[in-house]
Amino acid sequence: MIEIPPSDLPAALRAAFTMAEPAGLRCLGVLADVLRGRVLVDDAAEPTRSLLYETMYDTIYLSGTWTPAQVAEEIRDLRRRGEVMIGLWPDDPRIALLPTNTDYIGTVYDFYDHPSATVLASLSAKMPAHCELRPLESSVFDSLIERAMLLKHYGDVDAALSTIMGYCLFYEGQNVCEAVAGPLIDGIREMGILTHKDYRRRGYATLTCAALLQACERLGVQTFWNCNSSNLASVALARRLGYQRERAYTLYYWEPRQQ
């Protein structure tokens, strides 16, 4: 396969990479050049198939005409560099193309359409004792639990802060919970939440996410939530926040292999 700039992908192959795909916002982010990734085609002049590889979560997306042998070859090649996963709806015929040597198969949820700021207000109205909610800005960046990961993907603090938005909850001066909304893609941002292990089950994630969702609503931005079904806390939180649509898909995962 040949790597090309996202802008060079022909419209016929690009058309398959949409929000209709599981975690489809991520492939749109690569095409818009706001998320890191690679676009591969079988022929630079007249491609008949394309593979998009989104490198934050190591997810692949397929477009065009593939055979099982071709899919297996590309997954084998990508595994030499890292993890590989693909999400497909239960009735997707492309399931038949996948190799059977998966290391994991599970269920993942996509959540769409967060409720209005009015509905969310009750979830963030009461601030717990000794807590303070702060917007994600340069003065709090060094305290982030996910600081290293954000710098890896966005390069530096200024680049990260110009791309993402978020809130941190501080308890007695320590950042214990952070909610981050990723790059803006077609009017939508993907949500992420992380609470320090010593401060879980206190309602901090609900409060922090609700505040961020209200901020997104004020800007006219919708959000998207994605989590594995085995992450019961994340699934419960998405439902507690009131996301109005959810869809389950199957995730196929392969561990890295050097050979």
Topology, pairings included?
Elements: E1 2-4, H1 11-14, H2 24-31, E2 37-41, E3 49-54, E4 59-64, H3 68-79, E5 84-88, E6 104-112, H4 117-124, E7 131-135, H5 138-141, H6 147-154, H7 157-161, E8 165-171, E9 174-181, E10 188-195, H8 204-218, E11 222-228, H9 232-241, E12 245-254
Parallel strand pairs: 10-11
Antiparallel strand pairs: 1-2, 2-3, 3-4, 5-12, 6-11, 6-12, 7-8, 8-9, 9-10
Structure at a glance:
With 259 residues, the protein is α+β, with helices and mostly antiparallel strands.
Unreliable segments of 5+ consecutive residues: none
Q: What percent of residues adopt helix (DSSP H or I)?
A: 25-40%
SS element count, helices = 9
Largest sheet: 8 strands, mixed
Oligomer category: single chain
CATH superfamily of the largest domain: Gcn5-related N-acetyltransferase (GNAT)
Q: What is the approximate shape?
A: elongated
What is the CATH T-level topology of the largest domain? Aminopeptidase
- The tally of beta strands, per DSSP, is 12
Summarize the helix and strand pattern as letters: EHHEEEHEEHEHHHEEEHEHE
Count of individual domains: 2
Sequence of strands across the biggest β-sheet:
5-12-6-11-10-9-8-7
What is the highest CATH level, the class of the largest domain?
Alpha Beta
What is the overall pLDDT average? 94
Radius of gyration: 19 Å
**How much of the sequence is in beta strands?**
25-35%
The termini sit apart by 19 Å
